[in-house]
Design goal:
By secondary structure, the chain is an alpha+beta fold. It is built from eight helices and 14 strands. Bound molecules: zinc ion. The site of zinc ion (ZN) has 7 residues, from strand 12.
């Protein structure tokens, strides 16, 4: 019966992921879905969540990226902190049971306030009572219900596949979290042209993420539309630390159609649109670093 509910939950989530592009409002997860006249909730006040219809194994675990209990990648898999310090707290017992029974769970990542990314199936594959941590592996959906020990799947290949899927999910979660937080800071508008269509917007790094100071934090981000993101990346325009847009000289002298004129040339010497909260303003030192590169070209 619980297995049936879990599968129904996965199917319901798939629909929501499509609708919300996997940025799920907490409200719909709290409300959950209806099955045979009963409401199945997917998250609740506790990070390890068990709907009332289930006996002891939870349905989901939730993590906050960059939070105080931030779950990290260890040896290719995720770690998930015990609830409290008692290994026999009912939530910890529940996750241990999920481990021994190889029960697929949902792994929610809290991207920003009230917004979640859903990943499944997630399996508890190990526990470390000394560090009060479980090890979590993500897998591809098509392998739900196929035990890794069965003759169908080679155990070693499933180990490497899960490791790969887990690191992929973790990377996506960090990218998505950066995107959500940067777009929120700029009220989903391109900071150069005000365009207000999230599907045409990117969260761009001021200092690229392969550089030492290129962290995925809001003050190292700018919300840019696709065209302006590319223009910024190839140094067709730059932004000085006083938030002024500078269009490259040769581009200013070019004569062409309305996209060049209104979309790029007219931005010269304009100020970017800043986030509503001062704490989200782009970092002047990082802008300076980037603007220096622009001037060098
Ligand atoms: Zn734009």
């Amino acid at each position: 019966m619980e297995d049936q509910i879990r599968l129904a939950a996965f199917n319901w989530l798939k629909l929501q992921i499509n609708i919300y592009n996997n940025i799920l409002p907490r409200r719909i997860l709290e409300e959950g879905f209806e099955l045979n006249g009963e409401r199945i909730t997917l998250v609740g006040p506790s990070g390890i969540w068990k709907p009332k219809q289930f006996k002891s194994i939870p349905i989901s675990i939730t993590t906050v990226l960059n939070g105080p209990y931030s779950d990290k990648i260890s040896d290719g898999f995720l770690t998930y902190k015990f609830r409290g310090v008692d290994p026999y707290h009912r939530d910890n017992i529940g996750l241990r049971l999920a481990m021994t029974t190889k029960t697929p769970l949902i792994y929610f990542v809290n991207l920003s306030k009230g917004k979640y990314m859903a990943n499944f199936p997630a399996y508890i594959i190990n526990e470390d009572r000394a560090s009060l941590e479980f090890t979590v592996a993500l897998d591809e959906e098509k392998y739900i219900g196929i035990p890794s020990e069965s003759e169908l799947v080679n155990e070693e290949s499933s180990y490497y596949r899960r490791k790969y899927v887990t690191s992929l999910v973790d990377r996506r979660a960090h990218q998505q979290s950066f995107r959500v937080r940067v777009l929120e800071a700029y009220n989903s508008r391109c900071c150069l042209c005000k365009l207000n269509h999230p599907e045409l917007l990117d969260a761009s790094h001021i200092i690229p993420d392969n550089e030492p100071d290129g962290e995925p934090i809001v003050i190292n981000g700018l919300t840019l539309c696709k065209i302006h993101h590319s223009a910024f990346d190839v140094n067709i325009l730059g932004i000085s630390p006083d938030y002024i847009i500078h269009v490259r000289e040769d581009i200013l002298n070019e004569i062409d159609g309305p996209m060049l004129k209104h979309g790029i040339q007219d931005l010269n010497n304009q100020r970017i649109i800043l986030p509503s909260r001062k704490q989200d303003y782009p970092d002047r030192n990082r802008l300076d670093w980037r603007y220096t590169k622009f001037l060098e070209t």
